Amino acid sequence: MHAYRTHTCGALRAESAGQTARLSGWVHRKRDHGGLLFIDLRDHYGLTQCVIPSGSAVFAAADAVRVESVITVTGEVVNREPGTVNDKLPTGAVELRVKELVLQSAAEVLPFQVAQEQEAPEEMRLRYRFLDLRRERLQRNMILRAQIIDSIRRRMIAIGFNEFQTPILTVSSPEGARDFLVPARLHPGKFYALPQAPQQYKQLTMVAGFDRYFQIAPCFRDEAGRADRTLMFYQLDVEMSFVTQEDVFTSMEPVIRGTFEEFAEGRHVDAGPWRRIPYAQAMLDYGSDKPDLRNPLVIHDVSEQFRGSGFGLFAKITAGGGVVRAIPAPGAGGNPRSFFDKLNEWARAEGAGGLGYITFDADGPKGPIAKNLEGDRAEAIRVACGLKAGDAVFFAAGKEADAAKFAGQTRLRLGNELGLTEKTGFRFCWITDFPFYELNEETNQVDFSHNPFSMPQGEMAALETQDPLTIPAYQYDIVCNGYEMASGAIRNHKAEIMVKAFGIAGYPPEAVEERFGGMLNAFRYGAPPHGGMAAGIDRIVMLLAEEPNLREVNLFPMNQQGEELMMGSPSEVEEIRLKELSIRVQMPPAKKQG
């Protein structure tokens, strides 16, 4: 007989009755039923009930063992008594009558219970992550993650992609976040950077003549932690040669859709082809470039209906170049005043001046705005928003970007308040035609808005003749349920266009040569048109697991301060190590108290 187990704790069934079995695992629960001691023994595969009579030679040892201790038990598999069968448990028809018990490892008193899904402070959960991971929900999440990665890998190989690994120690690159730097001991004063993404290397793989690349790639970004973003994450990294934007969509959509369908467990997954929504339209219709399409509400621009109108506040805003956006609220007109007051309080808490509205009934428009707005203008708003008696409309006004953002927040709020947003299912779309450049509000300088290695639409002619802020790029995102799931682009494969594009963003040619010389040099020796994307593995798992936080789908995550509490990372380093690296630490000045 094997030293530790003949079966796993999830394997025994009614047909196993009469066999001698040996199981090893963790003590999940203990119950003393007056003369009979029950131990639920758990391993990765399941749970088996073990029984020790009071007269047994191992009763005292079993009685003394704490929960979460690791034991090995040997005994006879027997059918449970009628009325005690547990239909919710795969092993619930049988139990193990224990004759031998070996304590493999004793557990100390637990900081929190593993057998119960009780809430524990996040700091404690992360400090004792090895205990937290024993819980059924997190075990399920981690296995789901492994299965999803396996599914993606199989699908990519099946459509002709080759899996390559790119360097982890690389050069600093402007990917939109701070790099993690690694001192180069053999080159004092110089640093490697951990990759924010394998961007340059995957493009160079195409220049090297490989046609279809993918990688489940680790990425590192030194930025503030959020529920949907961590310092280190994994992405499905993809690049293809001789492709248009539509070719990327056609290749990758079935991979993402098929993966979701495989693990949806009856939840709706949008059939293809998914909607293509230009960035400008997304900002107008949904107030976001990450629209949650489970919410059916569509925002409307009603600036003209308020321009020169009797409602002075909005008339003044439109006269000054601002806009007014209308968010329809079907069925909201019959709600009590408290409904509208609550939304007004929410708007103020979000930093807005308030949330104006009009309600419609059989007698026409009602509310504070309607009192000062000409009847034909109110009617035009009702028609534009497709409303009827019993409905309402809310307004967001101000500078275009601010009004769009607040209208998007209001749309999400109303979708939930009115019960319009689907609770389950996965709604996908492609957001296309992102602006290549944006204006940096801090410096008032033109900067890249998305990916600096993308091809501007119109190529060199656009860069030479258009206002940079009007140039769209061949850039696209996959959005699911309000989350950016993937981001990609058709790449710039021409050195002269790359130098010109970076020049507009303030990088002189010598700086571009210094920072991106490897890629520029490669482009000068014949580069194919190419494009690709990267999809966030963590976010895919988070959505399919219906978890609100990426930390629930990662084995050993950091907290929001970038600390891994279990191992104590980051940590100080001995002075002798710093000297080896030619580094001197200069601490920031202490903050003044009071």
Description:
The protein is an alpha+beta fold. The chain contains 18 helices and 22 strands. The chain has helices spanning 59-64, 122-127, 129-132, 136-158, 199-207, 245-263, 279-286, 303-306, 312-319, 337-349, 368-372, 375-385, 400-417, 459-465, 495-504, 509-523, 537-544, 575-580; strands at 20-32, 36-43, 46-53, 70-79, 94-105, 162-163, 180-183, 191-194, 212-220, 232-241, 275-278, 300-301, 323-329, 357-361, 364-366, 392-398, 428-432, 437-439, 446-448, 475-480, 483-490, 530-536. The strands form five sheets. Strands 6-9-10-22-21-20-17-11 form an eight-stranded mixed sheet, sandwiched between helices. A five-stranded mixed barrel has the order 1-2-3-5-4. α4 (136-158) packs antiparallel against α6 (245-263), α4 (136-158) crosses α17 and α15 packs antiparallel against α16 (509-523). The longest helix is centred in the N-terminal third of the chain and has 23 residues, at 136-158.
Major beta sheet, specifics?
8 strands, mixed
- What is the topology, as strand order, of the major beta sheet? 6-9-10-22-21-20-17-11
Tally the beta strands: 22
Helix content: 25-40%
Question: In what range is the share of β-strand residues?
Answer: 15-25%
Shape: globular
Descriptive terms for the model:
594 residues; alpha+beta; eight-stranded mixed beta sheet; five-stranded mixed beta barrel; 18 helices
